[in-house]
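Worked Example 4.2. Consider the chain below.
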Amino acid sequence: GEGGMVVSNSQRLLDKIKDLRDYDQKKGYKVRYNYKMTDLEAALGISQLSQLNHFLKRRREIADFYCLALKGCPLQLPLPRTGYDHVYFRYVIKCKKSSRNQLMKFLEQRGIHCALPVFKPLHNYFALGSFPCTDLAQQQSLSIPIYPTLKNQEQGDIVKSIKDCFTTL
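Applying the procedure from the previous section yields the following structure tokens:
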């Protein structure tokens, strides 16, 4: 079975999504993909949607904790924009180029999984030329754990491990 969900207040966007969703039996050629989800995945999505406000509130609580607890570390922390509610899909910290990989390895050794926010910037895929600021940001950025079920103790362990790493560098 198939199911899915898209929410938008833009009719133009919805029309484009419908065109891409119905990927076959078209007169004109345009690259389209089958990103449809199963009925089970759609049902899970609907049930998760009812918890969206709780999930976002919890992510903001964790981000607030990180902001306070990591103050003073040699990191650039996310800065929320005034008048906007950040959803903190990721909590991306920025390190010096040489320390990002060391921090990532240090945290992994303690069972804390971190990820690169972007595997490879788009301009590298399409040979669009030099984007030195983008490349530098990619080389310095690290996404640390942030998800609604992250326990307070785990948050403390993450912060302690980050601080421990910088005392050994």
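The chain has a mean pLDDT of 89. The longest strand covers residues 91-94. Compare this with Example 4.1 before moving on.
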